[in-house]
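Hey all, sorry for the wall of text incoming. These are the two entities for the joint prediction.
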Amino acid sequence: MNALLAPLRGGGVLPFLAIVAIFLAFPLPGDATSLGLSPVALGGLTASVVVAAALFLRRADALAIGLGLVASFAGAALLIDDLPDGPLPAGSPGMGQGFWFALVAVWLLAWTTVDRIAGLSPRHPVARRAADLAIPILFGVWLLILWEVLVRGLGVPSVLLPAPSAIGAKLAAETATLWADFRQTFLKSVLVGWALGCGSGFLVALLVDRVPFLKRGLLPVGNLVSALPIVGIAPIMVMWFGFDWPSKAAVVVIMTFFPMLVNTLAGLDAAGRMERDLMRTYAAGHGQELLKLRLPAAMPFVFNALKINSTLALIGAIVAEFFGTPIVGMGFRISTEVGRMAIDMVWAEIAVAALAGSLFYGAIGLVERLVTFWHPSMRR
Amino acid sequence: MRTEAIAPLRAAHRPHAVSRWVAESAVPVLAVVGAILVVWMVATYVLNVTVQRDALDRAGTPYTAGELFLATYTMERPILPSPHQVAQELWKTTVGTPITSKRSLVYHGWITLSSTLVGFGIGTLLGIGLAVLIVHSRTLDKSLMPWIVSSQTIPILAIAPMIVVVANALGVTGLLPKAFISTYLSFFPVAVGMVTGLRSPDRLHLDLMRTYTATSSQVFWKLRLPAAVPFLFTSMKVGIAASLVGAIVAELPTGAVAGLGARLLAGSYYGQTVQIWSALFAAALMAAVLVAIVGMLDRIVRQRMGIRS
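and here's what came out:
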């Protein structure tokens, strides 16, 4: 008995449960609606889940992980294929219990696989990076799979939450509209506002840095303003600058100005006492000290503000469009499509915004790596 | 020569802590605030003068430059209201009207505040819970953490209207949909701050706990959690400001009838600039007070725990 239970103690509970679940998924005699898989497909799925899970009970090598990946994804594909194409008929109970047991089995297997990959700590740096990248990607893919299966299997109305496949179809079908919105909101309002706001914040910080009195006064005010709900000025900016993109850019300028100011001021103080004294012994002027010592030392702070501002800018531009726009723009599209209950279009727009936001952030991060390569946080 | 003579004198007359505070922070801050007010007053005249001149010309009665100047500060629908108009409106709508009235900013402020606080409470608990899970599970750390971080590059505020509308379609109205958005915005800073905080104990202290054969729950309650408290409060300050923004934005697009966001929207529909500015200042004041309260709690807890800051 002890020998039998031994594998369970080393984290073997999940694969064990996966095996139990896959056998529970078998349709009971006389219950035809439970799981629509053909006997061959069900047999193959069961066999691969059992073999992969049994391997995991003993070891976690490349063979076990590969088999786990193949079995879990093949199982997920089979289950998604088994879902009805259209919406579930009204009053139907949804998928049978066999389906859900099979889903649980496949998901447990996938979780175990991810767990075992996380447990590997490859010596080779490339392999380690690949593992670190693969884990969140697998997690994200499984989130999408579960979302798809749960929404369609439970018959969740698409007004409430559309399935990822429906959002993907909308993305493909409405590319022209989405591109026009992206151009209006991101390429005009966000980029222009972000550049102006960050630029002016940086320049004002350089000026203020020369006057200690102003600095002592502006820092607390700037910190306070950074915490305020500045998006609220959007209606005022729309009144002042009209409906088109300049009013959105103005909101973005004001939202991004203060984080940049505060961070740059903090960064300009980051250079050490010793280094500054050294500059003084070289008889360096203010400009030389700024250019050769204090600005490079401030760069991590500046990039921090640039990154914070990239998200703030997107939020500001989209929210400002709720207060009035020409008939194009991401915020405009979101608020009108919500009114029409076309939630899949809203999600498509959000997907575009998320992608744009992440790429923007990633691009700034990339430039940061190039500029602040010397900083301890960049060392590996 | 002179500095040498003065130096001991300075040391003897070391200014008192209060007067030093006045000279080093109060005076500069007040000067900056004063400068902002002056700029505001000038801008009020510059922005309003053309509209006001047109209005006076149309009225037909002759006027002097002085009258024009004064009139720009008392317009009913100015392009930029003057500070005293905003202050008057704030006073009128908070103290001058009964709290139950639809015109009272206290009434609208309370509606926004309640969803902010509910959302912030849930968000903080969720953030702490997630952080505890992440610290104790390697798989969650590696799989969930990158997604939590990248979720912040997504302009999540954009989906605020959708959540509110969908919740209304489901029959859930009022506080909860707005609170949900506040929750989403406030859980992130707390989760990230707490993960850092729970990991902040020294290797040495963790090893000491191991020599005591402490269980992982003992390590958590006696070492990790106390070490994480300063991080928790710092991230709560960020979180509560974010929740207020979330609650206000959630009130914008749904034609909500009450709340500071609804006041902003109604003001922009009817061109009531003074109303917009006073709602904005009420929101700013609320944010400042909320952050200050969290900061005060922080100091009290630190003192009781005996942490020197």
